[in-house]
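Summary for the steering committee. The consortium agreed at its last meeting that each partner would contribute one worked example illustrating the joint modelling workflow. Our contribution is presented below. We chose a case with several input lines so that the handling of multiple components could be demonstrated. No manual editing was applied between input and output; the record is shown as generated.
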Amino acid sequence: MVVTMTRAVPSTTARTLRLLRIVLAVGCVVTGGLCLLVFSAAHQSVHQGVRQSAQAVLHAEAAYAALVDADETAIASIQSHTTLLGGTAGRYDNDIAAVHQSLELVAEHNAAGDAGERQLELVDGVVVSYTAQIQQANADLQQGNENLSLVYLRNASLLLHQEDGILDDLATLRDQERQALDRQRSSVWVAGPTTLLWLVPLLALLALLTGTHVLIRRRFRRRLSVRLLLAAVALAVMGIMTGLSAVSNARFAAAIRGPFRDVTLQEAREAAAADAKGRVELAGLISGRCARSCSAEITSPDFLPEPVRAPASASPAVDVTTGLARFRATADAADATATVRIALITSMAVAASVLIAFGVRPRINEYRFEGS
Amino acid sequence: MRVGRALRGSVAVLLVATALSACGTADRGSLSILIPWTAGRERDDFNKVISNFTHTSAGRGISVQTIRTRATKQALEAAIRNRRPPDLAVVPTPGVLRDYVQQGKVARLDGVLDQAALQREYGSTWLGFERVGTGGLYAVVVKANVKSLLWYNTHTFPHAKPATWTDLTGIARQLTGTHSAPWCMAMSDPPNSGWPGTDWIEDILLHRSGPATYTALAEGTLSWRSQQVKDAWRAWGDMVAAPGRVYGGRLGATLAAYGDGSDPMFTQPPGCYLSHGAMIAGAAPEDPQPRTGVDTDFFPFPSFGRGEGQSYEVSADLMAMFESSPQARAFLKYLTGAEAQEVWPAAERDQAFTPNRTDLRRRLAAGPSGTVSDRIDRILTSDRPLCFDASDWMPDVMANAFYRATLTYLSDPTDARLDTLTRQLDAVQRSTRTDTPTTAAGTVCGPAT
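What follows is the complete predicted structure of the assembly.
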């Protein structure tokens, strides 16, 4: 009798399963990390955009409008010999308080870094200089020195309007903050196809998971692997959570295109209107006192450099307070709390990885003693 | 052995990489400079100084950020309050700088710059100005101006150049009542409106009472109510008080922008004939610029005929170091050199000057004699006393009160107003006297050579 000893050939299925288990488990962790990165970065950009840069722009715009209004108020009060300055009506005082408060808020929300901080210091300093001139004009008026009062009033207005004057400095500050906002809006995490890059490995992972499931069903005649199915669900949840960043990005863009733009436009329009009024009033005041001797360069409303201009737009006028409330609401929605979502993405990635590892394991174990 | 070789190899690669980066245009840090030149040629000229500096071996790779504002005092104050001063700043006045010296906010430059070279290049008087009345060196000159000059339109001024104050008042009287006013005057230059008036008072005091009296007022040891000072105010008042003496009237003068002050001199017919100050302020850029030396010329501030020699009031833009850094020190060293000092006078011929002797000698040797810039360069190298602008030298509070007083007096040039003003100025002087740090006596005025 001849006994033929044959050595069993190791199955390729076991090797394939082991490989799939490693690729899928590691893939879940890596894709989870990528989703986490995309979501966090997008959230960070939106958060900085709505909570910092946009706020800084809004406050800089508010400071600008308040300063122009303060100037017009001061001119009107001196023209009419009223006691608006320091009096109970206090519109000028309110405007100046609003300027200082707005500048503090710009400092708090500054997104323009070192350049922004330096520009703020500059504006802080020159606003003090402006108010000193107005106070002197008011003091002279109260002492009956009407001509001197006019000199200081005009000096103050010049400080505000002259080339590289206070309004130019404020506009530079606002533009610096706006540039920071634009950078955040155009960040690779917030705009463009890069925001969907996470989707590629996730879909690949789901496809591979489906393939694994099919393989197990064919080789082991198991209709359903609950653990693998749960892993697929976990991956889907992870994808949905990450996909929510696209919703935040869209809301962020809508907030900037909508109420943010409306408010800044309205502030600019109000500033331009106050500026135009103040120019005419000041020119009238000077002409009234100095019509015969002063040159046309002094009495003309054009003695001040370029007038304040609002951007050309057909948009209807809005109420600033209402517009700000709308912006806050949209911004809050865009910048919803991210902690729960981050926790969900992390836990889903880990769960999927573990479920896959333990889901494939029993099938691999079936081959454990095959070669011995 | 293998590990050792690998380690040695890594070190070699690192060294080569470091050396290569040092040879290239490596980032050598940044430098922030606060400047008052916000537009026009002055800003461009300073940018040229910076550009030249960054092409030197000391400045290559240094990123220079300029912070531009006319309100340098307020901007500097805010930056210092926030503990973020610029590395360097063109200080508004020596008086303001002295306050910062007293507060310990500004770096001393004695150890930074070569004192012997400075002495050689600038002389004791300008070195004294750079010490701003303290015991140490705290600033360097960016550019200089001679102020005691009276400018006129060569095509329209109908008189011989006056040699004395009496001649000048005679000319002013003759010109009054014609269709034009004798004086072009403009006081508005916010936030320091009124300073052109202080130059008038200072020049009259200097030429009437001499450098010693001038120095005493600048240093706060002479009362504003002293006869000499009050006479200086009255002399100015007499010159400008009568109707028709000032183009646009006295209110027009207080409202007119300093930069446009001389424009009426070039209209047809001329609005005015004479202008006091360091330069003919430029006309509007779109207008044809009057050519200095062709369309305009100057004569020195006239004497009061008391046998005193000619003195000149000068001013300078001074740069100080608020944050010491290798970049800031390198820039200051460069700025004191002849190469940097020649940028302004070359770019703004007849408008900006340097006290640097190498440059002055070079310009005097190379340029044609008798031109405006040649004559001003000769003032800066003569043996006549140069006195730093007194209001600039005073403590800031005093200077501000002086600016305001000139505006007030120009509005109402009466003796009663003058009594009130000088009493108020004396009160301010008393309040600042205790704040003023020890002044190195004799530094306000000194011979040019």
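Residues 2-23 of chain B form the longest helix (22 residues). Chain B touches chain A through 41 residues (CB under 8 Å).
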